[in-house]
Design goal:
about 10% strand, 434 Repressor (Amino-terminal Domain), 12 helices
Amino acid sequence: MDEQQEMKLQVKFLNLIKRKIGPENSAVYELSELLGVSIDSIYRRMRGETDLSFEEIMLLTRKYSVSMDMLGDSAPGMVAFHYSMLDNPDHFRRHWIAMLNDLQQIRASVRGEVIYAAIDIPIFHHFRYPALMNFKLFYWQREVISDPALKDQKFSEELVDPAIQQVASGIYEAYSRIPSSEIWTEETLNSTVKQIRFYYDSGLFASREDAIRVTNELISEFDYLEKQIEHGNKADLLASEPQREGNFSFYVSDIEIGSNTVLTRRDGGDSIYMGFQTFNTIITTNSRFCSDTELWLKNLIRKSNLISGVSAKQRYQFFQSQRNKVNRLREYILREG
């Protein structure tokens, strides 16, 4: 590898780490402190003017879980993934902070975009509604992370960490400003309905009123989502400031989606996020894998029905069928109470 190629590889390596840390200023200061060098020295390393030492590369690799084979295409058929395992409360908190940082970077990028094939409702939508947001955060932390502090607790909003609530609200705000396409199926809502029904049947709501409030907010979520899709605009329709038009494309697919698959674009490159084992995520920036996944997503879109901005009849039918599911759940809770 010649000197110019090595320089490009180092720049790409540090750009990947910057994306993991967050906005550039915080990344520069964090790297300066970690490596024990000046801010100026960090900028020289980022521009490829000063070489990273072997010790610095090893330190950065361990700290940010970035391997050198993530920087480009490895051997044919081989793809490196970063494995984001949520197995304890600390990882759970870090997960949301990392997601907020990612979305803020995408939002700030000229080419920022998200394409989301959704087996479950994209979590961003839940975070506009306090009770629904808190229910989801509690459910994931108790049932998926198995937080011992919640083992014998029933759902109550005050049990959710206010710091995570604040980050979740920031996640919704960032996502609402990013141009995106979402691909749903008739089954995308089902897991959320099942979670609420399971908690109610298991006596895991602190009160029946909590269950009703969460269910009512799920109905409100679909009412508002339908309006956003009608306007093709994901930003807050009630805000007084002018909003970016045409930033939301919504498709309904008859083809089953096997897992949540997300393609993100930003100025530093593309990434693929894939869900597995309920709530965990694997992430790659491998350009071949990103390109192949983009082709799959575009093919899925071609075979799906666009209901944002157009197709009023199909949009009404889709949302009516989804509301019917939530209304049946609400009637069940009221009847059983």
